[in-house]
Amino acid sequence: MPPRKAPASRAPRPVVTKAPEAPKSKPQPDEDVVMADAPSEPPGKSVPADGDVEMGDTPEQPHKQTRRRRAPAPNRGPDEFSALLEPFYYGKSLTDPINTAQDKWNLLPAFLKVKGLVKQHVDSFNYFVDVELKKIMEANKYIKSDIDAKFLLEYTDIRVGWPTRTEEDELNNHKSSVTPHECRLRDMTYAAPITVDIIYTRETSRIKRTNIRIGRLPIMLRSNRCKLMGKNDREMANMNECPLDPGGYFIVRGQEKVILVQEQMSKNRVIVESAKGIMQASVTSSTQERKSKTYVLSKKGLMFLRHNTLSEEIPIVFILKALGVPSDREILMMVAGEDSAYQDMFTVNFEACGREGIHTQQQALEYVGHRVRIMKKPQGGFQRRNYYLEAIECLSSVIITHVPVVGTNFRQKAQYIAFMARRVLMAIQDPKLIDDRDYVGNKRLELAGQMLSLLFEDHFKKFNYDFKMSIDKVLRRQHRASGFDAFAHFSVHQNHISMGIERALATGNWNLKRFKMERAGVTHLLSRLSYISALGMMTRISSQFEKTRKVSGPRALQPSQFGMLCTSDTPEGEACGLVKNLALMTHITTETDEDPVRRIVFDLGAEDICAFTGEEIHAEGVYSIFLNGTPLAATDMPKQFLNGFRRLRRTGRISEFASIHINHHYNAMHIATDEGRICRPLIVVENGRSKVTARYLKALRKGTMAFDDFLHRGLVEYLDVNEENDSNIATYERDINEHTSHLEIEPFTILGAVAGLIPYPHHNQSPRNTYQCAMGKQAIGAIAYNQFKRIDTLLYLMVYPQSPLVRTRTIELTKYDKLPAGQNAVVAVMSYSGYDIEDALVLNRASVDRGFGRCQVFKKIAFAPKMYANGSMEILNGVIDDKDKNEKKNHALGEDGIAQVGKELYAGDIYFNKQTPEVAGGVSGARQSFKATPQTYKLPDPSYVDKVMVTENESTGAPVVKMLLRQTRRPELGDKFSSRHGQKGVVGLISPQEDMPFSDKGITPDIIMNPHGFPSRMTVGKMMELLSGKAGVHDGSYQYGTAFGGSKVEDMAEILLQHNYSYHGKDYLTSGITGEALQFYVFFGPIYYQKLKHMVQDKMHSRARGPRAILTRQPTEGRSRDGGLRLGEMERDCLIAYGASQLLLERLMLSSDQHQVDVCDNCGQMGYQGWCKMCESHEGIHTLTMPYAAKLLVQELSSMNIKVEIGLEDEFKRE
Amino acid sequence: MSAQGYSGNPAVQVTNQLVDNNSRSVEYLCGDCDSVVALKRGEPIRCRNCGHRVLYKQRTNRMVQFEAR
């Protein structure tokens, strides 16, 4: 790196000379400035705030930067400094004029301030703790005894406290000082006690007890039960926590675990699909108690209902009759309406009535009852089955459970089944009406809160069951010695809940008996390779579809993903398209209450659907209204209803996450309030004008309005995928016409956090952006502010990371500029030597010397003593003997038998002088003798001992030692680098600076890149990055490469011209080798380069002779075992084809597992020591060399009773 | 924080029996209050000042030579 470019990496210098203004701060046209209603500001007021005007803050108080600060920081003074680090209000000062068309994106930081990038996880967890937990308790409120009818235990409340250590669990009113970081260091679980209030029967009285612990719940970081909630930067620093860390994960046994977002088909919605020519409508009903799937299908023109509890498919007419629809005509009307085509298709179904002789509800119920599978064997011997009642039971509570049956009113359920049947009919008529399973509106995302709630409910039920069992055991005894207090049995099982949840989170195995759910890999270890990899993991969505399926549907990019899921960020290969990422503005809904919505539906003039007859529902112009998939009402003024509903939502009368959309095919309106819908905010447009005007943006900037105020005032609203599909959304304000209903906040939000790092992604070929998304996660950089306090198994850090010169808005919003992973390298795009072919890079040796690409690798080595049955355990001990002390391998050890901090360790050095007790089964108390079992350093490259932490295991009290080893690595030949455009390359040559080409200003490049990398890859964005970077360097400003926007090439060319550069970005260079001018101009400027984690030092491997596997005596495999390099099958084929038989013999036997065997010529069996055991003679024994694996095969076969004879013959036959 | 917070962990007692009085004590630094804690082998790992249980080993006082490249 040439020394001249150092200033470029720092904060932008104030432009002293008459340097041209940055294009984005160009004076706005006057008409934008004039705003009659906007209060004019005193100019002096805005000056102190030039550093920080993040939304929601009053400009007078420069404040520190916390993404999720809620309460005002108690201590503002010390944080003033961080305001200086703030960007210049993302490139604008307070006094700059506001232009709605360009400045509406300011809503985005405002949104992220309220919602944050991982808010979905945190919201979901909060909902679980605050609401769901209480609901679960409510559903399992009472515990009764089978023996004593008088006994009753009742839960009255349940809550989750603040995180504690396990040892503090018993203390009441104790404020624990535990921090997430302590949990990480000490391998603890960051968990809080769950407490309940109970009322139960003791003898004859009712006893009330409060604050009873029933277990511990791992707490999600940054949730409202987390210690970090509402803390400012300073307090965070005191807790050794990084304020930029997104949170949203758990710390379980010292490991950071993420529950990935799971993608599923939506529950309680009808999906029409065609499978093997059978048209069917299916619905997965899910309620608290039951989950089942019901089908209505059409087979050979006849319609049936199928359900797991029914032993066979039942004609749809019988079901409808059983549900109390009396007349055939009414059934026909409910299903087909007045439409004669549907009527013709459906009438055949009535033939079954005549055939089976079923005409009344009674007969239909008998028919259904005969086909109900018996779930559990009736107790107490033979009982006559009451088919009639069984059918009622089955229809009311098993089939389509989510549609409620109030009393004996089956009307709604009948209508629901009729609707399903109608949709099947319609899909047969018009195959276009078959639903798209991959449509994002038909999907629901399952988040941490829901996963935990399933898990908790299961464990809570088990807990209650165990408690019931143990009190029953006592109550069953007739004569009890003392008075019975059930409470004694209550706390016994609390460990089950704690351990159950902890184990599920630690292993990722969700095994729930109730729903027959067995899911593995639900949780993942949070990847801390770089800040962006951790962030990327929090927005990841994994699909439940099996990966083997060949169909491309689920993997393809769905148009409905627009703005919801990132279009670029998906892995390559196996999981391609199945693992997705959330876009920047996406929010995932939590459940909201149905009841107020239900009331408002009727208030808006819709009428109860139960009051409608079939022909009325299907009459022209009548639209039925569904609430969460259940038919609720009908109206003949759908447009008015729709507008009214949206108006009420915008005024805040209904939850902002309730959505409504209209389906003209089915004449239906769907209202959704359920959880897991993907949605995003959009600006409301009314009468062809955006509701967000300059006035509001000014208020936003001033801090008098926050994002939530925009929501409450109906300026902005959330749309889910279904409703978005109904809306006319303009991308830019200029595109608004009379049909427009919404305006995009910013188009670059269709990308996610990871893809948002790419400058000018809209100029790149799409796969390149996808490649960069994968590589950005492997880049070495800063990880968190607490990176030096962490003791991770493996940690890569860059020594001098730089903030990118060409930024994007997303970079600023994700705070990537604060924790960057890369450096701005001056790149010359030219050919140099021959060491740059095939994407190889040439590095400048002087740049490398100055620290370009330098990184540190930290490795953790832990010591936890092994315990033995007799109570003895492994210990660490210092070296006592003076003679031993001087031994070289002991040079690093301290008095305590642990390597000293700061010492350099070479291969073979001891870092833990471990000693193991000699007799494992000895009597405890006797003096133990120990044998030395030291742990030695294995790697060929030396490391320094960076840190040694000593602590105690939380549960066992045994000592735990964690040692952090550090290596500092400079780039070497073969290390992998990549720009931000999916252009990776390895170092091919590190050239001395004097040999590098230099410009007329004396600048030498840091990297020389071969121009062949461009034509086929079409990464125009990279060229634009270079141009903007170069302009920014000379201008003293950061330039922007935001997607669908950013600094214009024309403006960049203008800046370059003003600084006497070619507007092409090409420079005149002189060869450093010959001293002649290069015969061409060279494209020359800064490009942000990332060092990737793949480094030669970790991969380099060679072996002459070495260890062999025990079983086969062949060389071991892999670098970690110092393995050999395999001459594989295909290489073997080559040698055979070539005829190099002696080489083959050498490679496959002599150099591998050569073995001498004595073989008897007479019997063909193997003998030993010149003796054949079979023939009992020395005769015919010949010694021959064969691969050990072959000998092993013969023996293994004989162990399976397969005799192998080895026939011998002379190579050169005697005549 | 009060030291009462940490009491009655039966497992700690087990290790207490193994305190080796012959071994020399090594000084560690508390991860919370930064005070020096001298520990012998087998002693419970805990700061005497604040009760914090994360201790760090002090840097060696012997010379360390770096090859700066």
Automatic annotation (TrEMBL), chain A:
Disordered, as annotated region: 1-79
InterPro entries from the UniProt entry: DNA-dir_RNA_pol_su2, DNA-dir_RNAP_su2_dom, DNA-dir_RNAP_su2_hyb_sf, RNA_pol_bsu_CS, RNA_pol_bsu_protrusion, RNA_pol_Rpb2_2, RNA_pol_Rpb2_2_sf, RNA_pol_Rpb2_3
Principal location listed in the UniProt entry: nucleus
One BP annotation, GO: DNA-templated transcription
Pfam families recorded: RNA_pol_Rpb2_1, RNA_pol_Rpb2_2, RNA_pol_Rpb2_3, RNA_pol_Rpb2_4, RNA_pol_Rpb2_5, RNA_pol_Rpb2_6, RNA_pol_Rpb2_7
Cellular component GO terms held in the UniProt record: DNA-directed RNA polymerase complex; nucleus
Function (record text): DNA-dependent RNA polymerase catalyzes the transcription of DNA into RNA using the four ribonucleoside triphosphates as substrates.
Places the protein is found: Nucleus
Keywords in alphabetical order: DNA-directed RNA polymerase, Metal-binding, Nucleotidyltransferase, Nucleus, Transcription, Transferase, Zinc, Zinc-finger
CDD domains cross-referenced by the UniProt entry: RNA_pol_B_RPB2
Family label: Belongs to the RNA polymerase beta chain family.
Listed name of the protein: DNA-directed RNA polymerase subunit beta
Subunit description: Component of the RNA polymerase III (Pol III) complex consisting of 17 subunits.
UniProt feature, compositional bias: Low complexity: 1-14
Domain RNA polymerase beta subunit protrusion as annotated: residue spans: 116-497
A molecular-function term among this protein's GO annotations: DNA-directed RNA polymerase activity
Catalytic activity: RNA(n) + a ribonucleoside 5'-triphosphate = RNA(n+1) + diphosphate
Residue ranges constituting the DNA-directed RNA polymerase subunit 2 hybrid-binding domain according to the UniProt record: 754-1121
EC number(s) stated in the UniProt entry for this protein: 2.7.7.6
Domain RNA polymerase Rpb2 per the UniProt entry, residue ranges: 266-446, 525-588, 625-686, 707-740, 1123-1206
Presence of keyword RNA-binding: no
Tagged with keyword Aminoacyl-tRNA synthetase: no
TrEMBL record, chain B:
Pfam families for this protein: Zn_ribbon_RPAB4
Residues annotated as transmembrane: none
Record's subcellular location: Nucleus
The organism's place on the tree of life at top rank: Eukaryota
Keywords: Metal-binding, Nucleus, Zinc
GO MF term list: DNA binding; DNA-directed RNA polymerase activity; zinc ion binding
GO cellular component: RNA polymerase I complex; RNA polymerase II, core complex; RNA polymerase III complex
Any single biological process term in GO: DNA-templated transcription
Keyword Metal-binding among record annotations: yes
InterPro entries linked: RNAP_P/RPABC4, RPABC4, RPABC4/Spt4
Signal peptide as annotated in the record: none
Family that this chain belongs to: Belongs to the archaeal Rpo12/eukaryotic RPC10 RNA polymerase subunit family.
Protein name per its UniProtKB record: DNA directed RNA polymerase
Biological source species: Clohesyomyces aquaticus
